[in-house]
Specification:
177 residues, 2 strands, single chain, two-stranded antiparallel ribbon
């Protein structure tokens, strides 16, 4: 059980670059490098912390957990974005978790990812509500809030392969339903 391996860190960097390309056009306009930087700042933390939520809860239960990226699905997202497709579909990352979790542990591991997005969403709301911010900071925090609110709700849809399905099925099994 490794807290975070060099290979996982490398995968996080590749995923960050890919989501920066995918989301570059959704933020403020300007030079390409600025668009990529802003896209990475608003999208990558929510995805990475979501997956690390799964990983750290699994590690806490003594299970193996490794941050992975599905290159094919990331590539689909990059290609759709570069084609200016009216919709995007991609899978940015996942955590491969070893066997051995009880149904309740499985449900808690699954909920940990969306819980991280909820925490980021609430943090962004608090910052926007309580802090005096520049216009640029308001834009960044607003986009961060929106993305993480979406990730929280989207990932809790109770159909496979979303986290919501794993939460629901784990809870049902844990309580004998």
């Amino acid at each position: 059980m490794t807290f975070l391996s060099l290979a996982e860190f490398g995968r996080m960097l590749v995923m960050t670059l890919a989501v920066a390309v995918i989301f570059r056009r959704w933020g403020p306009h300007g030079p390409l490098l600025n668009q990529l930087a802003i896209a990475a700042i608003i999208s990558a933390p929510g995805i990475i912390l979501h997956e690390l939520g799964h990983k750290f809860v699994a590690l806490g239960y003594g299970l193996d957990a490794t941050f992975q990226i599905p290159i094919f699905w990331l590539g689909i997202g990059v290609v759709l974005s570069l084609m200016n497709a009216p919709f995007l579909f991609f899978v940015p990352a996942y955590v491969a978790i070893g066997a051995g979790a009880t149904p309740l542990q499985h449900a808690l591991i699954a909920f940990a990812g969306p819980a991280m997005n909820l925490l980021i969403y609430l943090t962004a709301r608090l910052v926007l509500w309580k802090m005096p911010l520049s216009h640029r900071a308001v834009v960044l925090w607003t986009l961060t809030r929106k993305i993480n609110g979406f990730l929280f709700v989207f990932n809790l849809i109770p159909i496979p392969p979303f986290d919501g399905f794993s939460v629901l099925s784990g809870l049902l099994k844990a309580f004998g339903v």
